[in-house]
Amino acid sequence: MKPSVTTRLSPTIYETLVAAASANGRSISAEVEKRIEQSLEADEDQKKRREAVASMVAEAQSLKLP
């Protein structure tokens, strides 16, 4: 069984969520879970991009140009 979370939403966010769930053929709960999953994946992707950029900057700074 999945853990349960209770939260409060503004009416605008709730209506947007209901519309998105309907458009995507999901329950509200499934829509919330999918959106959270996508958000967490985006956070991880952003972290990886920042690390890659930092690595490239460090490498560029270490180059000894004439």
Automatic annotation (TrEMBL):
| Main localisation | cytoplasm
Q: So what family is this one in?
A: Belongs to the TraY family.
Q: What is this protein called?
A: Relaxosome protein TraY
Tell me which positions the record assigns to the signal sequence. Answer: none
Q: Which InterPro entries match?
A: Arc_rbn_hlx_hlx, Ribbon_hlx_hlx, TraY
Question: Could you tell me which species this protein originates from?
Answer: Bradyrhizobium japonicum
A Pfam family of this chain: TraY
> Which terms are listed as keywords in the entry?
Conjugation, Cytoplasm, DNA-binding
Coiled-coil residues:
none
* Location of this chain's protein in the cell: Cytoplasm
Q: Which domain of life is it from?
A: Bacteria
